[in-house]
């Protein structure tokens, strides 16, 4: 995306001011050595160039480097990347995660952009690979797995794989911006302060948690908490900011936690959870059936308890620098001990009290004490409920409370990530959803405007719909319907994804600023009117079955007619089947105008056998997890607002049936902005 925006900056196309610079600044903070980490995980605390990497895994850092050369990115990052490519090992850039193609695609042009010598040496190193990959009868890259198995290469089209090698072979011609066409290259680079991402994430974790506690407590929040948040927000994001953070937390956290525990009119569980989030601690309980090949084993359970001490993570990433690590740990001022007891001591055995003391071996990482136990229990499937009585002491503050826990349950998420319930601390926090919910993203703004980086467990999130006082519903976003931008919610947050974002397990929908078209008529080109009630009920199990077009070139057309014209911005469609082409058109100026086209993509997986077994006796929970048939496409498609009273959706599928579960249409610039109401 950075490279795309860098290229776009050389054209009339424009994006929001400053977006590209911010992304490149972030690239420097996550790739201080020039090398891009896997995902977002880095513990590097140096800006010394990585001379051992070179082009290895270049699909991660090559695009950043080339983008920087085009748009004039951070000077230090560009310098370190140039050294990494120029002085690193030769011939290692085919070691991608699951695709050598993506790594080669960005490494070889990056070598050319560094210096011709590095380029020629690496091209020579891959001469054998290119020769053997070519078909005997001409052409290039017909077989993606001729030599070694790269599971993602098979889904990269032959033409794309071929074009990548052609680009690499022709790099020295400099016909493209990415290969160095002079008029598209930056003349200067920006001096960006050397900030390490891990430190900024550590600071943001405490700003985020303290701000959420303040929002959850509302008017009952201690004044000391509000002033401490201002102090945290005033800490400059720079190298060494973690030590300024440690000083603030050590001085302010414990008095604030004490004040919270003395607030009248707030239940003990909420107060204790708030105190834990202020101190940066947690007790996480993983209690689940043992599995063999993904199947629960009757009567066999495992219990894992992870204890995170106050100010956990203070030395995260510093283990390579003993002086810095010692500095972080020497500032620690907390005496920490506690116990966990379970209310059910007979169903599961042997059940015992879990304890930790100040003499327990604690370090500066997140999780500092772990307990593991194998247990026997019920043989029948189902979710067991009990309480965990948690007691802990931090210096002279003693806290005791009951935390409800689930044994054997799954949190609503994607089938790939069907993880057991994480019985960690949870807090209900008010906020406004920043963008339409899709996949993992669930970030929101607090009432005071503070940005909260958040994610759901997987691609789904449970929604308790409180917008209709007469009929409170429960549904799953984006399966049943997509939770829209501007939704005013209570988010049930947990802090167990430290440093990246908090986790949202579920939420309560209170209102939305996005107005939905509630009453539209719909007809299908292959036959008559469609029951729209089934398509707007936020229940993906109620299906309208339609005939597909007999040919792939003639689409099934769904034509919507509104009572009156409105400014429309999005269509949310839930449909069984996969790989459908999609075109959305609006009737404007006496003709149909395309406003969106693309592919619906592949269908999602259904419910796993493990989930079915676990929730066999809880049909309502299973319904939330269950998708119709073998798979299901959930697709929110947005477009530039267009004013019209007619809209049509074209679905390209050859023959058979199209099972349509939901079809929601959303307006832009709703006059009644419910999300902003207090």
Identify the overall geometry. Answer: globular
Tally of contiguous helical segments:
15
Oligomer type? single chain
Approximately what portion of the residues adopt beta-strand conformation? 25-35%
Helix content: 25-40%
In terms of topology, how is this protein built?
Elements: H1 2-8, H2 19-30, H3 58-71, H4 75-87, H5 100-114, H6 116-125, H7 127-133, H8 158-169, H9 197-217, H10 223-233, H11 241-261, H12 268-279, E1 282-292, E2 295-308, H13 322-330, E3 336-342, E4 354-356, E5 369-376, E6 384-394, E7 397-407, E8 422-423, E9 427-433, E10 444-445, E11 451-452, E12 454-456, E13 461-465, E14 473-477, E15 488-494, E16 502-511, E17 520-524, E18 544-547, E19 556-575, E20 581-588, E21 591-599, H14 609-614, H15 619-625, E22 633-652, E23 657-667
Parallel strand pairs: 12-16, 13-16
Antiparallel strand pairs: 1-2, 1-8, 2-5, 3-4, 3-6, 6-7, 9-10, 9-15, 10-11, 13-14, 15-16, 17-19, 18-23, 19-22, 19-23, 20-21, 20-22
Helix pairs in contact: 1-3, 3-5, 4-5, 5-6, 5-8, 9-10, 10-11, 11-12
């Amino acid at each position: 995306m950075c490279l795309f925006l860098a290229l776009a900056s050389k054209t009339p196309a424009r994006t929001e001011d400053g977006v590209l610079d911010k992304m490149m600044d972030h690239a420097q903070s996550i790739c201080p050595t020039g090398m891009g980490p896997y995902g977002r995980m880095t513990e590097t605390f140096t800006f010394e160039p990585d001379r051992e990497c070179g082009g290895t895994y270049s699909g991660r850092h090559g695009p950043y480097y080339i983008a920087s050369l085009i748009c004039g990115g951070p000077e230090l990052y560009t310098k370190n990347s140039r050294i990494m490519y120029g002085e690193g090992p030769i011939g290692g850039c085919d070691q991608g995660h699951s695709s050598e193609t993506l790594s080669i695609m960005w490494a070889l042009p990056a070598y050319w952009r560094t210096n011709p010598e590095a380029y020629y040496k690496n091209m020579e190193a891959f001469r054998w690979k290119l020769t053997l990959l070519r078909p005997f009868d001409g052409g290039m890259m017909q077989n993606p797995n001729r030599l070694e198995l790269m599971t993602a290469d098979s889904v990269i089209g032959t033409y794309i794989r071929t074009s990548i090698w052609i680009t690499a072979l022709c790099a020295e011609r400099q016909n493209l911006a990415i290969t160095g066409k002079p008029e598209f290259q930056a003349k200067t680079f920006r001096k960006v302060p050397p900030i390490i991402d891990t430190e900024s994430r550590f600071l943001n974790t405490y700003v985020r948690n303290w701000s959420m506690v303040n929002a959850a407590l509302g008017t009952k929040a201690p004044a000391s908490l509000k002033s401490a948040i201002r102090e945290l927000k005033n800490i400059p994001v720079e190298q060494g900011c973690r030590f300024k953070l440690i000083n603030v937390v050590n001085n302010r956290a414990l008095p604030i936690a004490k004040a919270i525990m003395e607030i009248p009119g707030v239940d003990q569980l909420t107060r204790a959870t708030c105190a834990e989030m202020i101190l940066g601690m947690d007790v996480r309980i993983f209690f689940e059936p043992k599995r063999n090949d993904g199947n629960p084993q009757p009567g066999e359970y495992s219990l894992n308890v992870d204890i995170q001490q106050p100010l956990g993570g203070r030395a995260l990433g510093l283990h390579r620098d003993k002086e810095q690590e010692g500095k972080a740990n020497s500032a620690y001022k907390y005496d920490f001990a506690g116990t966990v007891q379970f209310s059910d001591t007979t169903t599961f055995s042997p059940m015992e009290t879990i304890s930790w003391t100040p003499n327990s071996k604690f370090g500066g990482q997140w999780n500092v004490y772990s307990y593991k136990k194998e247990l026997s229990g019920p043989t029948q499937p189902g979710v067991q409920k009990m309480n965990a009585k948690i007691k802990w002491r931090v210096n002279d503050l003693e806290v005791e409370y009951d935390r409800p826990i689930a044994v054997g349950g799954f949190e609503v998420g994607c089938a790939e990530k069907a993880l057991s319930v994480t019985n960690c601390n949870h807090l209900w926090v008010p906020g406004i959803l920043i963008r339409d919910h899709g996949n993992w993203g669930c970030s929101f703004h607090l009432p005071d405007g503070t940005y909260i980086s958040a994610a759901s467990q997987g691609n789904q999130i449970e929604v308790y719909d409180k917008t209709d006082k007469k009929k409170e519903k429960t549904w799953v976003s984006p399966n049943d319907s997509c939770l829209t931008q501007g939704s005013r919610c209570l988010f049930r947050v947990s802090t167990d994804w430290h440093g990246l974002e908090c986790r949202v397990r579920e939420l309560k929908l209170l209102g939305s600023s996005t107005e939905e078209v509630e009453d539209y008529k719909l007809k299908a080109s292959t036959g008559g009117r469609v029951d729209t009630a089934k398509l707007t009920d936020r229940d993906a199990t109620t299906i309208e079955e339609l005939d597909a077009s007999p040919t792939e070139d003639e689409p099934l057309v769904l034509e919507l007619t509104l009572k009156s014209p409105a400014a429309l911005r999005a269509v949310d469609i839930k449909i069984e089947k996969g790989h459908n082409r999609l075109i959305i058109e609006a009737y404007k100026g006496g003709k149909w105008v395309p406003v969106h086209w693309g592919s619906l993509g592949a269908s999602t997986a259904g419910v796993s056998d493990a989930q079915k077994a676990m929730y066999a006796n809880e049909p309502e929970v299973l319904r939330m997890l269950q998708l119709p048939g073998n798979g299901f496409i959930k697709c929110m498609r947005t477009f530039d607002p267009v004013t019209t009273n007619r809209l049509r959706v074209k679905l390209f599928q050859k023959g058979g049936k199209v099972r349509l579960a939901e079809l929601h249409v959303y307006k832009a610039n709703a006059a009644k902005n419910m999300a902003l109401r207090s």
